[in-house]
Amino acid sequence: MILLDGKVASAAVKESIKKETTVLSKAYLRPPHLAAILVGNNGASETYVASKVKNCEEVGFLSSLIRFEADIAEDVLLNKIIELNNDASVDGILVQLPLPKHISEAKVIETINPAKDVDGFHPINAGKLVQGLPSFVPATPYGVMLLLEHYNISTKGKHAVVIGRSNIVGRPMSILLSSNLPYGNCTVTICHSHTPNLNEICLQADILVAALGKPGFVKQDMVKKGAVIIDVGITRVTDETAKKGFRIKGDVAFGEVSAKASAITPVPGGVGLMTIAGLLKNTLQAYKNSY
User: Which of 60, 77, 211, 277 has the fewest Cβ atoms within 10 Å of its own Cβ atom?
Assistant: First the structure.
């Protein structure tokens, strides 16, 4: 069984980005610049944004963290995004989700200039992805593809099953795996909460991607022997014995499923780290596109 270690794979991606950034920063007289907006003080969001800022520094990017209180008016947030759109020194813009309920996530995403949408959520980037045109791919599915590439996981002609149909992970993941790409060309089935024969379908999967946000949902009896298991789930589960009072759990029951899998991602230490690698790759591309 191969452990698809996100720490190892992301380090390799980041080293490549760092080398390219060093060269380009001299040619363009400035490094890439990512601007992140954080609204409120959600604990998980604070952790994710801090990690993104830290990783930017590690590869030689500039990063700006813009904070707003949770009660910020929607138009104030949108105006800030427009300001960043017009700032030639900013290459990538991300707004950390989720947002407070009084703010429309759709409006926020659609206000970001698609050329700076390094999260890959804008409808224009989503449409380009569907048509196989160059676009910014949502960072988590992009990270999964980078992970498959790093470990040279064979995908051509395989049956991939994706559990989850979100615009952030499930749908773009299914498109990438079915695309005519070196680590695509799968036959893909998307499953969701209304799929009646989920276990039966999962048992047919050569590659199983779990992205539904339910800790330990995928059990051993849902997995074919020798399958490749990609666990996208990252859920904080209360645990009073843990130092922080919680543990991070994936959507896959790792202990029992790993015994049947040919390859599997751990949680933490798997797809989460690759998501940041995908974000950095997108930011570097946005920077290169601006010249």
Answer: 60
Residue tagged active-site, from 52, 80, 158, 281: 52
Active site residue 96: yes
What amino acid occupies position 162? V
285 is catalytic: no
**Residues 253-269: tens digit of each pLDDT:** 999 999 999 999 999 99
CATH architecture of 29-114: 3-Layer(aba) Sandwich (3.40)
Annotation marks residue 119 as catalytic = yes
Tens of pLDDT, residue by residue over 47-58, are 889 999 999 999
Q: Which of 117, 119, 206, 251 is catalytic?
A: 119
Which pLDDT does position 9 carry in this prediction? 98
CATH class of 139-271: alpha beta
Residues comprising the chain, all counted: 291
